[in-house]
Amino acid sequence: MSIPSGRRIETKNRLQGGASSWHVASAKFYATSERGIDVAVTLNNRALVTIYGGSGFLGRHLVRAVARTGARVRVAVRRPDLAGHLQPLGGVGQIVPVQANVRYPDSLVTAAEDADAVVNLVGVLFASGKQTFKTVQEEGARNVAEAAKAAGVGTFVHVSAIGADADSPAIYAQSKAAGEEAVKDIYPDATIVRPSVVFGPEDEFFNRFGAMAQLFPALPLIGGGHTKFQPVFVGDVAQTLVAAIEERTKTDAPYELGGPEVLSMRDVMERVLAYTMRSRPLIPLPFWLAKLQGAFLQWLPNPPLTIDQVRLLEDDNVVSEAAVTDGRTLQGLGIEPVPVASVVPDYLEQFRPRGQFSVYKA
Q1: What is the distance between the alpha carbons of residues 220 and 212, in angstroms, rounded to a whole number?
Q2: CATH number of 22-199+231-260+317-338
Q3: What is the pTM for the complete model shown?
C-alpha cells in the first residue's frame, strides 16, 4: 500500500533510574512518552484504516495509535453503540464505529469500502454459544479477508497468536492456524502477527491473577508452574501493527512478538504476589486435575478456566528461534520491548491491601 507521507512523530527516552509507570510505557508509542524511541509514521488524514474488533483490549490501543498518525479510523464492531469510548482517542470525526459481525459476511463489506488497509483483531478466549473458535477465528477470519478483497483493499493485517498450530490438542490453537491459512489463501501478501501473552492496564492475564491473589488463600500452579511465557506490552503490539499497515513488515512468515523476558508460570505468580503485596502459597496442580476443574468451570458465563486453556498450557508460549533469526520480531522492527516491571506494578495496585495507598518497593 502506498500512502502519502504524513507527519513525523518523535519521542526521546528520558526515563531515569527505576521510575516506572504504565502511563509512561503506554505513552512510549503515543508520542507523549518519558520512555520512548523514535517513531516514524507515514499515514496521514487521506488514509483510511478499518479495524475489525477494534473495541477490545488491543483494539483500543491500536485505534489510538493509528489515530495519532492522522489517519482516519473506521472501527467495525458488533455493537457500535457501545464503542463511543473510542471516539475521544482522535479528532472530531476521525474515528467512526460501524456495525459488522464476522459471522455475517454481508455486514463486513460496507465496513471495508474505500479503506487503504484492514486489520483483523477479532478473536475469542473461550467459546460461548454461537461464538465458537471455528466461527470466529477460522470462518470469521476468512469472511473478513473476503470482504476486504471484495472492497478492493490492498493491505491486510491479521492478528493470530503464538502457538497457532493445526496439530495442537487445543481447539483455540487449531482455529488460529486455520484462520491464518484462510487469510493467506485470499491475501498471500498479508502480514500475520502472533503475539505471546499481551499485557497492559486492561489485560486478562496479570489482572486476573491479581484478583486471585486478593481473594484466594492460595494460588494454583497448573502443571507445576513450568509453562513459559514471553509477555509483550500492548503498545509494542500496536506499534508493530502500524508498521504492518504501512507495509514495513515481511509477509513470507508470521511475526512473533514477545517481551524482553521469558517467565515461567511460577515466575508470573511470584511477581503478581510481589506487585500486589500479598503472601499466598503456590500449590502445584497437575494438568489432569486442572482439566477436571476446567470441565466444570468452563460452563460459567466468564470461565476462569477451561479444558482447552489447560491444553494450551501444556506448551510454552515464547518466540521461536526461527523468528528471531529471520528478524520477524519486535527487535527486527527496531522496537525496544517494554518489560513487565515497567508497567504491571502500577495497574495491579488496586489489588494491594490498601490499594493505591500501599507503598510498593521494587
Answers
A1: 10
A2: 3.40.50.720
A3: 0.88
